[in-house]
Amino acid sequence: MEIVGIFLAGFASGWAVRTTVDSSRNLAVKVLSKLYGVADRATRAVEMEREHLEDLFAEARAKYEADKARDARGRSANDQGVRRQAPAAVQDKAA
Q1: What CA–CA distances, in Å, run from 13 to 1, 3, 8, 18, 84?
Q2: DSSP labels, 18-31
């Protein structure tokens, strides 16, 4: 009878361990699944910010190139003899 009791105790403890391992495995799978979701959302957010920064840099580069071209046209006009008028000198009307 003692052997049957030991067998039943071992069987019950094995059953309890098996149940605990399965439930912890399910928990681990759920947690990892949530982490994959978080990583996916973070990746999308980073990609959106990267695209925004690329657009910002492209716009800044285009403005720089346009300003550079405008300045070059102004300098070439001055080199060809076109003079800009100097501002009129302000005279002090002290008596």
Answers
A1: 18, 15, 8, 8, 98
A2: HHHHHHHHHHHHHH
Handedness of CA 71, 72, 76, 77 (dihedral sign): negative
Give the single-character DSSP code of 72.
Answer: H
CA distance 3 to 7: 6
Whether residue 78 contacts residue 84, with contact meaning beta carbons closer than 8 Å, is answered with yes
- pLDDT tens digits, one per residue of 25-56: 788 889 999 999 999 999 999 999 999 999 99
Predicted TM-score of the model (pTM)? 0.48
Q: Measuring CA to CA, which residue among 38, 34, 37 is closest to residue 26?
A: 34
